[in-house]
Task: structure prediction
Amino acid sequence: MSASTARKRAKHEPQSHHHLRRDRRDPHPLDVEEEIADAAVDAAEAGAAIVHLHARNPKTGQPDQGPEAFAPFLKIIKQRSNCVINLTTGGAPTMKVDERVRPAALYKPEVASLNMGSMNFGFFGMLNRFKNFEHDWERKHLENKDIVFRNTFQDIEYVLKTLSETGTRFEFECYDTAHLYNLNYFLEQGMVKPPLFVQTVFGLQGGTGAHPEDVLHMKRTADRLFGDRFVWSVLGAGRNQLPIAAMAAAMGGNIRVGLEDSLWAAPGRMAASNAEQVQLARKIIEGLGLEVATSDEAREILDLKGGDKLEV
Result:
């Protein structure tokens, strides 16, 4: 979920980012489409204004950017919830940009994520905590120290040109200050339009850190570049998720939480669901005397086209 907090008494916009986590002892077949849909609806009912969605191969659990993998759960979510749907164009670092953009190009969601620069990507630190895996690819992926997540100016321009005509707006994921400057370049070129939904990402190996000074530096840089033309949100990876959320909420920002970004609900305790993480972020927001935005209020904040425009 990504919950947005601005000033006191402002509305705050939660966002849930969905990845499946399943008990491997469960002998029943994995019904990926229904589980993703249920998790998204549950997160929305817990207070998430936006749900950000990836698809998975039901047999291997690997990321799947085939549009046909998205259609079944998109139909269910649209029928059951008014939440804002945000589709990934990140997919996985191993995918090329034309593959990554296909689902959003076909279904024309209100929001699509867009990574604003290339970066080293490392998950190998997780091997210190997780030893047993269901599929061979999981360990190999975590062990890989040679991953560069490519998002060149050409790639970014391709996504912008492909999706801008559909009326889809973007969640601009910025993993360091250079990515903010990349976004400013596209703003100056007239290729993106305010309000910019700027998602600053902290604590991921290969990106900026999760120290309070890192958060302040990214926020100050965004303020200087964009002034009142952006909506600020934060993503804290792993154990940083809720501390970063609390800091941003107190500073007037929005919050993103979900199992894509962190598996944890508390030190040493894994989250049961995306909805649980949404509830924890909501407690932070409301504990500060602030309110969580509804999906329709989020649409107004971000100037979105409306949920009826999703073509599924």
About this structure: The longest strand covers residues 196-202. The radius of gyration is 18 Å.
